Amino acid sequence: MEYRPLGKTGLNVSVLGQGGAAFGQQYGAVSDREVLDCVHAAIDAGVNLIDTAAYYGKGTSEEFLGRALEGGRREKVVVCTKACRLDRAVFDFTPEGTRKCVEGSLKRLRTDHVEILLAHDIEFATDYEYVFNETYAVLQQLKKEGKARFIGMSCYPLPLLKQAIERCDLDVVISYAHGNLFNTQLLSDFMPVAEARGVGVMNASPLAMGLLTNQGPQSWFPGPPEVIETCRKAAELCRGRGADISFLGMQFALALKQIPCTLSGAARKSELEVNLKALTAPVDEALLADVMKVLDPIRNRTWKCGNWPG
Question: Where is the NADP-dependent oxidoreductase domain (predicted)?
Answer without folding.
Answer: 16-292
